[in-house]
Fold these 2 entries.
Entry 1:
Amino acid sequence: MPTTAIRSTEMPSSPIRRLVDFAIAAEKRGTKIYYLNIGQPDVHSPNEFWTAVANPGVKVLEYSHSLGIAGLRDAMSADYKKRGIPVEPSELMVTTGGSEAVVLTFLTCFDPGDEVIVVEPYYANYTGFANIAGIKLVPLTTKIEEDFALPTTEAIVAKLTPKTKGILLCNPSNPTGTVYSTAQLKEIAEVVKQKNLFLIVDEVYRDFYYGTSELTSVMQIPGIEQNAIMIDSASKKFSLCGARVGFLVSKNKDVLGGALKFGQARLAAPTLDQIGVQACLEKTPATYFEEVRAEYMARRDILVKSLAKVPGVVVPNIEGAFYAIVRLPIDNSDKFCQWLLEEFSHEGQSVLLAPASGFYMTKGLGANEVRIAYVLEQDKLKAAVDVLAVALQQYPGKV
Amino acid sequence: MPTTAIRSTEMPSSPIRRLVDFAIAAEKRGTKIYYLNIGQPDVHSPNEFWTAVANPGVKVLEYSHSLGIAGLRDAMSADYKKRGIPVEPSELMVTTGGSEAVVLTFLTCFDPGDEVIVVEPYYANYTGFANIAGIKLVPLTTKIEEDFALPTTEAIVAKLTPKTKGILLCNPSNPTGTVYSTAQLKEIAEVVKQKNLFLIVDEVYRDFYYGTSELTSVMQIPGIEQNAIMIDSASKKFSLCGARVGFLVSKNKDVLGGALKFGQARLAAPTLDQIGVQACLEKTPATYFEEVRAEYMARRDILVKSLAKVPGVVVPNIEGAFYAIVRLPIDNSDKFCQWLLEEFSHEGQSVLLAPASGFYMTKGLGANEVRIAYVLEQDKLKAAVDVLAVALQQYPGKV
């Protein structure tokens, strides 16, 4: 029997998947589980999407252009411009979800063995994408005590080696909910410019911003036009995770040209979903976003307020996305999350949380933190936190 | 300005794309172009697909499971079993097109630097997938004079090095239309078993078989259950190229487990397209395939008959898919294909062909061959060959 590759053996499997199996087992025992582990919004996808895919106006579902259908590229560019983000249709490529945009960026910008600094805690799948591309992620740690703010320029520069080719962050951040200020982004841009690096910013949560000042895109920072790469997606924006439509945006022609060459090999992103997303961009009323944003903001407020009452819980400032990394008075979050599903229930209920260790590359970090995705309706979210509070009293490993 | 990766610079861009630009320019000059270069069938996608995606029964388009939706996996397994191909639902993973199935196979089975023997001429995008995975493709040449039959076992064994980990072929073949006999497949299976290699067979053209005996799948060859990997797709089967739904099939648990880990990082294949393809598998009447097959068989017959009348043209035996590699009495097919678009027209018409050099890895091969995709209606196809015949008389580089 032939053996599979070393990189396949070394590829981490999803730590959450194991917990999901425990959750399913708990449900079979009759326990109600609140799922706070995943980034799948419960908001329904816009009617404009469903209408467009039901009436696509074609009889053959053909390959689209490898860059994406022209109408969608125009509509996305128009959406950016409306927000003051200067992006021409020729400066973006439609990808199969934001995931593919990251993979194509890695393949295009970095060679095997190159180093990319990633702000941790970070979206765990970046590890998988780095494994696919054979590049090395180097963690730049941010701390809950500092609301996960970006470290100083000195701390960033200290991470650079001759192999460093880029910096990657997510803004608003999955998993922390942190939003980086314009001043912070400009500081990091200065490093990027001086050291000739790519700056990749994953902005798929742009529409989930609860602050009062303007949210700044990497495409709005002057002087780094050739360094900046923006990752975007329709998944969260339109609650279309299953549509697999994302965007790779850059003014650097070598980046887009290179990504296109890799993209030609895989032919194209799904055509019908592109047609649907184009309709969403052109026709979804502003009220859709206002309602979604108001709903998530209310959920964030409930989460923060409820958690603040639980003794020993540390909740940082959360300004965007729909996640929070919170510190719990426990010995080990992997153990705690499993205990919640295997041994605990309160009035027939328990919760599924994501241990934060999976979002850190630095060993040992996140051991007393969990990620909470506040993707449940407000009353369910409140109930879930109540269950968590009881669990924290009963957990044998509390500290 | 930061520079992109070496692998990006070295990634070949599509040679056809350049020609398409010439074709567009010719059309602007008023020339009618017959497009014989692409594998986009003109057959319309099944009504069952359009009905299913218009009535998906959900309001939120969620991520599907990383392995694909259960109903689709069941339906595909049932389709295989009906054809005598023993595949359980647990032995297949839904991928984002056949393209992703090849990439995931490469990532899972091979490490950077590993060698995979590929039967040439071969589907040009395999080069791109190999570049993504950092593996080396080693060509095993087949010849038009031998109807592109597989070489002898000795010739295959002569290509093996300590780094060889697999063999890749396409059956029925894009770009040659060759169908490998059961005896040929068993010979190659013997090598694979003895040398402990993976055998990857791309079978996306299974439904386009015009022979009389049974078409044999790699999954039907006894004794190589742990070596065999089948690539499949809904693209050609249901004329759903734009749906991006493919399949990676293997009984080797390490292969499917590894592919799943890479697949979890990219989350899932498009949900709505999966729902549509499931409906196609469950409900499309047998007459759909019979009509499609009869139509393509008629096209093949017209192509072969028309080309046979053109002096100096060599047409091999073509038993499947909808492509042919044919030899023309010319000096250089790259030059000829460009000349067709830039300098030639006959009664205001010309043709776009794919130079065969792009389907060979061995330098110099295919220089007097082109790939013809017979994806046009019968009368158009006939007209296109007539135009080609006139062009061959006028071409200054004829031999």
Entry 2:
Amino acid sequence: MNDVPIAVLLSGGMDSAACLWWLRDQHPHSDIHALSIDYGQRHRVEIDYAAQLAERCGAHSHRILRLDLSTLSGNPLTDHSVSVPAASDKRQATTVVPFRNLLFVTATAAYAETQRIADIYIAPVRDDFEAYRDCRREFYDALEAALRLGGAVDRAIRLHTPFIEKWKSEVITLGLRLGVPYELTHTCYAGRRPACGRCDACVERLGAFSANGADDPLTYETRS
Amino acid sequence: MNDVPIAVLLSGGMDSAACLWWLRDQHPHSDIHALSIDYGQRHRVEIDYAAQLAERCGAHSHRILRLDLSTLSGNPLTDHSVSVPAASDKRQATTVVPFRNLLFVTATAAYAETQRIADIYIAPVRDDFEAYRDCRREFYDALEAALRLGGAVDRAIRLHTPFIEKWKSEVITLGLRLGVPYELTHTCYAGRRPACGRCDACVERLGAFSANGADDPLTYETRS
């Protein structure tokens, strides 16, 4: 696979940003089509950062697909009446919209199909395993099978997960080497800039930079 | 399975309406949660009919989930600048939004998950096979696997397809027996009431009623 076009699911977070820069490095002659999902998330500001990342990296295109999951209520990422749990609550599972990844990856595959793109990149990392069952490779294998059987023609769709065996801190190591502008990535579940520094996502991010002996270029309200 | 709640994907078309009445008949004591998807379809009027069908049948709830697939353009069901092909064109495949069924069924599963419902009913019929690969049972089996692997907990989600071996005309036979109010179902791809009578969907519907020696209670602009 050299010059074939590529689709990448770009959330605007650190991992998908590193994936975008890694793709640019690995496939310098391929058109990269980035897709972000606007699902009514509280931290919707991440989509603006995704657009800036796509432009900065020289992506061929950046599209935003709107999937309004706010009717799937009771979830703090989409329901603005539910508070985001602090990392100390150990309640990560409540931040998951049911089958969110399945919906997002399928939507990306649908967009890719309209562009005749068969190679789709997603950036789950090893840290995601425990809380998110849909970040495991066996899940992606099952979804690949469903996509192949459910497409208009019998054509393989490849869901690439280059970072699935890497820890988040290793992906940051890679991203720093590739020059990812981390100040343009968004992580905070509360959607704040400066970031809250208290939610699961902020705490995990700070820990990953710390593990690299690197300084996170973002500003935070507090660093716990 | 007796009194457990049930979710059903209700498009407002004939097949899902028959499925709803069949469920009411088979599971008289179960709460039936109907879900319709607003995906920016040209024939969006079907959602209004879905709401009427749910109420008439005594469904416990009817929710509408908005998935804006109009950015997946070039498809006549969502792109208002593309004309709907007449049945005589033999170009059914162009009316398929990529992975539409995968998205819709997954969205239904996500909604069901928020209600702790594990049994989901969908109404593909045998006639759908040729044009739509995602109406085959093997596709649903693969999607069931992806849903089981992608859920927050390891819990089976059952995708029931009671009509998958039945021809559309047989489903109408069943629906007529169960008292489905077919005047409240919508079929025309062009979204017209009276129905256009010329598109694939209208032609197929008229053929199915005709095969039953029954009269379609809908009014049509023309009956080809």
